[in-house]
Amino acid sequence: MNLKNHRKCIIVASLIIIIAGSFFIYIKLLEARKNVVLTVGIFSGSWNTPSENTYKILDNAILRFEKSHPGVKVEYPSGILKEDFPEWISEKILLGKEPDVFMVLPDDFDVFSSTGALKNLDKLIKNDKSFNSSQYYKAAYESGKYHKSQFALPYESVPTLMMVNKTLLDKEGIPVPNNNWTWNDFYNICKKVTKDTDKDGIIDQFGVYNYTWQDAVDSNGIKLFNDAGTESYFGDARVEQAVNFVKKLNSLNNGYQVTSQVFDNGKVAFRPLSFSEYRTYKPYPWSIKKYSNFEWDCIKMPSGPNGRSVSQLDTLLMGISSRTKHEKLSWEFLKALTYDEETQKNVFEYSDGISPIKGVIESPKNIAEINESMPSESTLNMKILDNVMESAAVTPKFKKYNSVMVKADNDINNIINGKEDLDTALLILQREINNMLAN
């Protein structure tokens, strides 16, 4: 055998050994994965209503995942309602029987992160070259951060938009505001439309329903807390501006408490509305159309003098149990739900919220599909939705946030409805909130 043929034999033999070794390793991996069961914790439905579409989205994702991960089975319990889910998952965590991957509602995230129930994802994210966090809208992604570490990924988001009674504005000779409108524009329209239309001495048409001091604060360039959640800024002049603006808006009603029923009857020009309500409103506008005969649309929130159009953003998160025995597979499945565009297209199509993935929202095909699901008179401009998501407010993430905000909301609403000095009252509130944060 000459040298050339000898080398060929060595190369062929080496290739055979490599192929055989790779096959052996593959078989071993399959054996290791055999009978591996990943568990998932979800609730039925989206933000507002129970729906079997939840399982349709999940089943499609599981089918693709199991096909690409031979030997792995993904299982989940069905029939858990959203209102029951926090208690269900908390009980599972206490018993040490929580699912490998599970949904995390906004109100539960701080507790699960701070108590170690959720796995810190930083290392998994850093070591995964196929994962790029910039694919998410920033506010949605950061909703899964706690103390600068990522503990969950966004599955579905719900921004707030301003619902406009187009029929009422048209009757008053007022065009629908553009998306660069300001507090001044908002107030002036509300002032113009607030009136006694039947001349009985009682105001029966109004400017706005359910616009809150938090809506105003978000759009006036101020955060209420520092990142660590150790200090509040309720005494800031921009907060005072926001609270005073809401007080000024409310004063137009001469003490009348505007209700949702008044809005439904077509007697209110504006109403902040979550996108999930907008989508589940689909059968609802037909009753409005039938009985009140008004058309409606949604636009961005108005901007304050020191800020820009910013909306509240609620995000349904998904995380991994810190006690999972299948860390790598759980991470891969978490991505299959929250990062895979096919799954996220299903989220956009079948749920009440929207996908937190930019590419899904910007897809012309998805834009056409979502507009087909809307009432005919309420085709939503997806460019507006994209802008709203880009500039959405990130809800602070610290352990005492919910409790201090309950106090802040109660006190500020009392301030709005009372006659005490606004500057002094907000400074007192800031001191009391800071004491709560320190203890």
Features:
single chain, 439 residues, alpha/beta, 8-stranded mixed sheet, two-stranded antiparallel ribbon, 20 helices
Low-confidence stretches: 22-32, 283-291
- Give the CA-CA distance, first to last residue: 86 Å
Instruction: Tell me the β content.
Output: 5-15%
CA gyration radius, whole angstroms: 26 Å
Largest sheet: 8 strands, mixed
Please count the beta strands (DSSP E, at least 2 residues each). 10
Order of helices and strands: HEHEHEHHHEEEHHEHHHEHHEEHHHHHHH
Please identify the structural class as seen in this structure.
alpha/beta
Total helical segments: 20
Global geometry = globular
The chain-level mean pLDDT equals 87
User: Helix amount, in percent?
Assistant: 40-55%
Outline the structure in words:
Mean pLDDT is 87; it is low at 22-32 and 283-291. It contains 20 helices and 10 strands. The protein is of the alpha/beta class and 439 residues long.
Q: Mind sketching the topology for me?
A:
Layout: H1 3-33, E1 36-41, H2 53-68, E2 72-75, H3 85-95, E3 101-104, H4 106-114, H5 122-127, H6 138-142, E4 145-146, E5 149-150, E6 153-165, H7 166-171, H8 183-193, E7 206-208, H9 213-218, H10 237-251, H11 260-264, E8 268-274, H12 275-280, H13 284-291, E9 296-299, E10 313-320, H14 327-338, H15 341-350, H16 358-361, H17 364-372, H18 382-390, H19 401-417, H20 422-438
Parallel strand pairs: 1-2, 1-3, 7-8
Antiparallel strand pairs: 3-10, 4-5, 6-8, 6-9, 6-10
Helix pairs in contact: 2-15, 19-20
